[in-house]
Structure formats: structure tokens, C-alpha cells
Amino acid sequence: DAKTTQPPSMDCAEGRAANLPCNHSTISGNEYVYWYRQIHSQGPQYIIHGLKNNETNEMASLIITEDRKSSTLILPHATLRDTAVYYCIVRVLNSGYALNFGKGTSLLVTP
Amino acid sequence: GEEVAQTPKHLVRGEGQKAKLYCAPIKGHSYVFWYQQVLKNEFKFLISFQNENVFDETGMPKERFSAKCLPNSPCSLEIQATKLEDSAVYFCASSQDVGASPNTEAFFGQGTRLTVV
After folding, report:
1. Which residues of A touch B107 (CB under 8 A)?
2. Of A49, A69, A98, B30, which residue is the least packed, with the fewest Cβ within 10 Å?
3. Are A34 and A46 in contact (CB under 8 A)?
4. What is the pLDDT of residue A6?
């Protein structure tokens, strides 16, 4: 299974861009990178996913390096409500597409 | 419905008792996933379904745990003879599709917190 590595915690000032890195050096060619977040103890929330091109939606942008070994999730203008644990996940295509969450990055947005 | 509905929100069971958790996926979603979150930040995949068929059960404990997704009924996760170590939040998720298609994001319910005492 492709594993991901994320920093355990990060801080970001409100209104600034939050850039969350993720390493996935063993990713296979047809595996997508997904990002989810868990706010407090709520159910995980889908943010964005991509294969090799950069992606943007109303929540965030996803930048994937050309070799696909790492990616960065960008929250362009972080708010206090973005404080959460962010999970970078490589979809496990050979195991029924389960999400392998890992430990994630705990992002604290400060006033 | 438009969201994944899990019931009950909280469940307390004595050791050895049975626990049954329910999940109603989003209408039109063919795939259902169950995850267990024991400690903060640590999720464990349990089982997935494609409609009423088991899709992947590689994470399911061999004993005491079972799950079903029957037509026109909520999916269920049942734990026979609960143990203290089963205390966790159990999340259900559904998705329209899996694999490399566009509609593969999973939508999660708010979870059922099981406490075994």
C-alpha cells in the first residue's frame, strides 16, 4: 500500500494561506491523492482529490509534483473554522479502495 | 437522503453484550464503508459493500464482528460479546463510485460512539 507522511502539527494565522505538505513516494501510477479533514470529533469531510494535475475547488487547491511523490494542500485564506486534522490519503486501489488515513496533520488556525 | 445517517449517536454496552450500529447511506450511492476510530487520529478500515455485496472485508476482525447491507434497509454493523477494546467511534461512509471515476469521494456520517464498560 502506498503510505503517506505528514507533519504532525502546523500553525497558521487567520487570513493567511495554509500550506499542508504530504509525501507519498511509493504512489502507483493509477492511484489518486485524496485529502480529508476531521473537525473536532465530527465525521471526516472530503476536501479534494487529484491524479497528477493541479486541482482547485471552492475549498482548497491541490498541487501535485511532477513525479507525484509529494503534494501540497493549500487553504488560500484560513479561518478559525479550518482548525482540524488534515489527512492526505492515497487510495488503496488493490484493496477495495479503502481510505488509509494515517495520522494526519493537526492544523491550528490562530486569530 | 442527502447525508449519511448513523444511529445511534452514542451506545453504551456492558462487556459481553451485543452492539448493533446502523448506517443509512446517501441515496444513489452504491458503496458503503465502515471505519473504526479508537484513538484520536487513528482510523481502521473494517469492511465495504457494493450494494448488498461485500466488496472488501480485509479489515474486519474474524470473530465477533459482522456487517450487512440489505435492500431497502439501513446497513448494520454488529459486534457480538463486546470487549473493552471495542470502545471507539464507528464511522460509516458512502460513495457513488470507486476507482478512477470522478464521483469517488466518500461522504461520512457523524459516527456512533460505542463505550463498553
Report:
1. 46
2. A69
3. yes
4. 97
Q: What integer best gives the mean pLDDT of chain B?
A: 92
Distance in angstroms (rounded) separating the CA atoms of residues B86 and B21: 13
Residue A49 CB partners (closer than 8 Å, separation 6+): A32, A33, A34, A35, A55, A62, A91, B104, B105
Query: What is the distance in angstroms between the Cα of B68 and the nearest Cα belonging to chain A?
Result: 17
Are the beta carbons of A98 and B33 separated by less than 8 Å?
yes
As averages over each run of 10 residues, the pLDDT of chain A (111 residues) reads 88 97 91 92 93 93 96 97 95 71 94 95
CB of A13 within 8 Å of any CB in chain B? Answer: no
- What would the grid cell of residue A74 be? 493549500
Q: Which residues in B lie closer than 8 A to residue A99 (C-beta atoms)? A: 33, 35, 43, 45, 93, 106
Element spanning B27, H or E: none
